[in-house]
Specification:
The structure is a single chain. By secondary structure, the chain is of the alpha+beta class. The chain folds into four domains: about 140 residues, 2-Layer Sandwich (Beta Polymerase, domain 2), CATH 3.30.460; about 90 residues, Hydrophobic Seed Protein; about 100 residues, Methane Monooxygenase Hydroxylase, Chain G, domain 1; about 50 residues, Serum Albumin, Chain A, Domain 1 (Orthogonal Bundle), CATH 1.10.246.80. Helices cover about 50% and strands about 10% of the residues. It is built from 20 helices and eleven strands. It has a seven-stranded mixed beta sheet. Strands 6-7 form a two-stranded antiparallel ribbon. Helix 7 crosses helix 9 and helix 13 packs across helix 15. The longest helix is centred in the last third of the chain and has 22 residues. The N and C termini lie far apart (about 85 Å). Bound molecules: cytidine-5'-triphosphate and magnesium ion. Cytidine-5'-triphosphate (CTP) binds next to helix 8. Cytidine-5'-triphosphate binds next to helix 8. This is CCA-adding enzyme.
Length: about 400
């Protein structure tokens, strides 16, 4: 049995929680992603605990708890400034619509609980002594860099079809391969994905697309036809086939969406609809639209100073990232230099404002906005210096 000595603090601070459960006569283990990430030496973001205690018993044992998913057996325990999801050993039964079940069956032992988990590398448990419980050779698969379903992959994907997206997501994040039978099951069952909410599919898609090896994962995403069961991708595999040939793996979500939109040749007036289909936020949509717009400008010709100003630094840098990933030859240094040399980077840097125009005899109204806009444009293009005096002279001229 693998025994891990010197557990990192994120685990050791949780010892009292496990101990308390054990002293009350229950079993308790660390389970799931945290053990996988510990062994892979990856950053650990949260610790999940599985226990034989029922949720009501967990709530009785700890002063500060939150009913996170009490129906599913999960209680969040707050202890010593940290929080833990404590889930009663369970098996999922009564799957309707291939989504997460609305009711679960609690089981008596850890083995029954681990059996219903998605992949062998996620079905590891560890006790307080650092001993790893590995009933499905998850350690072997970690070593072989394999994503492999626990037991019968068809059953696991029928239980929760999202697991098929999780498979390609972990491939990308961990740079692992997909075990052949598991892959076959994804190919057979990809259509079940249409039963899953778009939000959950999107979250996994973004994790895949921003993982360290999204290009190879995307290949499998296409090969297994998972791509045919997500919003707006059906029938587009020829366009999406460019993704695995990208120069680099995207690391930002904004870059990912921009690249997908560019590959799918989605026109400007369809970007909002596409982003809505994927249930993306308005803020994400706006940013992506700006990036795609600037990318088109940069690819065709050189953007004007005004266009660079309108884009802003963040969007410019993000667009350069996108061009870099797509292998689009652009002179990024020159673009950044031109941006840096802009006389103003935002309206607040303009030497005058509406009040100034009013003080100089311009009447409030639409005309004022128009004049202010003209001043902005002339300052950006260098026709007019960004100083009160020069702008005052200009105002006198146009009267
Ligand atoms: N559809 C799912 C989702 C989760 N799990 C199990 O629940 C654990 C925790 O789930 P989650 O936090 O979603 O995934 P992690 O593996 O912890 O990955 P991440 O690092 O993204 O949190 C998983 O390890 C796995 O054992 C599962 O079997 N099937
Ligand atoms: Mg997790």
């Amino acid at each position: 049995m693998l025994k891990i000595n010197n557990l990192p603090p994120i685990f050791t601070v949780a010892f009292p929680v496990l101990k308390q459960l054990e002293q009350a006569g229950y079993e308790a283990y660390f389970v799931g992603g945290s053990i996988r990430d510990l062994i892979l030496n990856r950053p650990i973001h949260d610790i999940d605990i599985a226990t034989s205690a029922y949720p009501e018993e967990v709530k009785r044992l700890f002063p500060k708890t939150i009913d996170t998913g009490i129906k599913h057996g999960t209680v969040t325990v707050l202890n010593d400034g940290a929080s833990y999801e404590i889930t009663t050993f369970r098996t999922e039964s009564g799957y309707q619509d291939f989504r997460r079940p609305d009711h679960v069956t609690f089981v008596q032992n850890l083995a029954e609980d681990l059996k219903r988990r998605d992949f062998t590398i996620n079905a590891l448990a560890m006790n307080r002594a650092g001993e790893v419980i590995d009933l499905f050779n998850g350690l072997g698969d970690l070593q072989k860099h394999l994503i492999k379903a626990v037991g019968d992959p068809m059953k696991r994907f029928h239980e929760d079809a999202l697991r098929m997206m999780r498979a390609v997501r972990f491939m990308s994040q961990l740079n692992f391969d997909l075990e052949s039978q598991t892959k076959e099951a994804v190919s057979d069952l990809h259509q079940l994905l249409s039963k899953i909410s778009v939000e959950r599919i999107r979250d996994e898609f973004v994790k895949m697309g921003t993982g360290i090896n999204s290009r190879d994962a995307f290949k499998i995403f296409l090969q297994t036809k998972l791509s045919e069961s997500v919003p707006d991708f059906a029938g587009k595999s020829d366009l999406l086939a460019i993704y695995p040939k990208l120069k680099f793996n995207p690391s930002m979500e904004t870059s990912l969406w921009s690249i997908i939109i560019i590959l799918l040749k989605i026109s400007d007036d369809q970007i909002a609809r596409f982003m809505r289909d994927w249930k993306n936020s308005n803020a994400m949509t706006e940013k992506v639209r700006k990036i795609v717009t600037l990318f088109d400008l940069i690819s065709e010709k050189s953007p004007s100073d005004l266009e660079l100003f309108n884009a802003g630094k963040d969007v410019l840098l993000n667009t350069i990232d996108v061009a870099h990933i797509l292998g689009q030859p652009i002179n990024s240094e020159a673009l950044v230099d031109r941006y840096t040399a802009l006389p103003i980077k935002s309206m607040s840097e303009l030497a005058v404002d509406g009040q100034f125009l009013i003080a100089n005899g311009i009447k409030p109204g639409p005309k004022l906005g128009q004049i202010l806009n003209e001043i902005k444009q002339k300052v950006i293009s260098g026709e007019l210096a960004n100083s009160k005096d020069d702008i005052q002279d200009y105002l006198q001229q146009i009267e």
